[in-house]
Specification:
It is a single chain. The chain has three helices and 32 strands. The protein is mainly β and 427 residues long. The protein folds into three domains: 131 residues, Sandwich (Immunoglobulin-like); 110 residues, Immunoglobulin-like, CATH 2.60.40; 138 residues, no CATH class. Strands 20, 21, 22, 23, 24, 25, 26, 27, 28, 29 and 30 form an eleven-stranded mixed beta sheet that branches. The termini are far apart.
Length: 427
């Protein structure tokens, strides 16, 4: 039986201000030999890796090892709470079958100038699969030894019991009215038996599938019958950004518009210099919302026939002067949104520009830049500006944990895009 009480709005307004620490990014590469890790729903590179419990859903895992020799890679699942902290349970409590599985499908690169071994797997396999809903970290490691961790990726296992209806609105507050987007949504818990929904249910919202800026664990504004309403004007407000910068690397032989030059062997490509776009007028164009696609013009299968090159990025700061007490980072799925030495732009004092080199596979990329305060990394500035009209996708995740559960169940997923018109002009 559902037991709900209508909680006074004033009390819930105060409670809704309480949030837990920011989300942990579960997507990390530990081995420098590993490149181009792709993990997504089967056949859809732009999607998240989501598996509906006890269904025929499948996900694809791809990665390249630049050592160019065959190795014994294994994977396993680690069940986590809603904030990606591992839960204290035996693997036999959430994995059916083998707790470790070898990745047996691989191919040496062909046609490509660069030599590497491409590995792939379709998850879950019938002899090793999750049996509980929730957040899972897929760990890939060498030689059956979990201490030899190569990389991790996020897998969402869904047991659908809740539905979500959502809207993306323009915020009312004057300082965010033209620059941010506000999510208002209602969670229907008709399929859940709960006695204290405000404590047992948590929600997490992602913008463009990004865990690094996820917002979550905000208490509902109202509880009515078996519905939770999240409508507080101060919660789930995201900087809207601008349409992402793009880079077409589908061919190294035929250079695209955004590539300035290349060396004779096409092993080094130089991207045209970028600059601050925050003062430019907003223009809509279709983009990948920070993601990238492994694809080529001139091969049959880009996963093992795609080539690699050093891609040199340049950013020109105002007045050709370095930013004081701030670091500039290249962000996007191409860097896993990590703020580390690999994604950091380094200032060239002689040329007065920031530079960074990424070793990238042929494909179509979207990317951006973030300015981060050296003393307080939580203070970030989007170098492209923020416009509320910007097209963004949002994913709402609903978690439930009863008083006897040892881990959060993932009981609902809803995805919404703030724009359906897709205009081709400024406004």
């Amino acid at each position: 039986m559902h037991i709900f009480k209508l909680i006074p709005a004033a009390i819930l307004f105060l409670l809704a201000q309480q949030t837990l620490p920011a989300q942990t990014n579960p997507d990390v590469i530990y081995d420098t030999n590993i490149h181009t890790v792709r993990f997504h729903a089967y056949g859809d590179q732009e999607s998240m890796a989501i598996y509906k419990l006890n269904s025929s859903d499948r996900t694809e895992l791809h990665f390249d090892d630049m050592d160019n020799r065959v190795k014994s890679y294994y994977y396993t699942y680690q069940l986590c709470d809603y904030n990606w902290q591992p839960v204290n349970l035996s693997p036999f409590d959430f994995i059916k079958g083998f707790t470790q599985q070898r990745i047996s499908t691989y191919r040496f690169s062909s046609i490509a100038y660069t030599r590497y071994v491409h590995y792939q797997a379709t998850l879950p396999e019938t002899n090793s699969m999750p049996i509980r809903s929730g957040n899972y970290i897929v760990k890939v490691f060498l030689d059956g030894d979990t201490s030899k961790l190569a990389f991790t990726r996020a897998l969402l296992v869904l047991d659908s019991k809740a539905s979500v209806s959502a809207q993306v609105l323009q915020p009312f507050t004057p300082d965010r009215y033209n620059t941010h987007q506000h999510l208002k949504f209602t969670v229907n818990l008709a399929g859940v038996n709960t006695s204290n929904a405000s404590q047992q249910v948590k929600v997490v919202v992602l913008q463009n599938n990004r865990w690094d800026i996820a917002q979550g664990n905000v208490l509902p504004t109202f509880i009515r019958n078996n519905s939770l309403e999240y409508s507080n004007e101060n919660n789930f407000v995201f900087a809207a950004g601008k349409e992402w910068r793009w880079l077409d690397l589908r061919s190294f032989r035929l250079l695209s518009e955004r590539v300035d030059s290349a060396n004779s062997k096409r092993t080094d490509l130089y991207v045209k210099a970028d600059g601050d776009r925050s003062g430019q007028r907003y223009v809509y164009y279709a983009d990948l919302d920070g993601k990238y696609l492994v694809t080529t013009y001139e091969s049959i299968n880009p996963y093992w026939q795609g080539d690699y090159a050093n891609i040199h990025f340049k950013y020109i700061p105002p007045g050709n002067n370095a930013f004081a007490d701030k670091d500039l980072y290249l962000i996007g799925q191409l860097t896993d949104y990590q703020l580390n030495e690999s994604s950091k732009m380094h200032f060239n004092t002689e040329r007065g520009i920031y530079e960074n080199t990424q070793y990238l596979k042929q494909g179509y990329y979207s990317y951006g830049y973030a300015l981060v305060d050296k003393n307080d990394p939580s203070k970030r500035t989007d170098m492209d500006g923020n416009y509320w009209e910007t097209e963004n996708s949002y994913t709402i995740l609903v978690y439930y944990k009863s008083f006897t559960d040892q881990a959060d169940q993932l009981i609902g997923i809803s995805q919404i895009n703030n724009r359906s018109d897709r205009p081709g002009f400024s406004f």
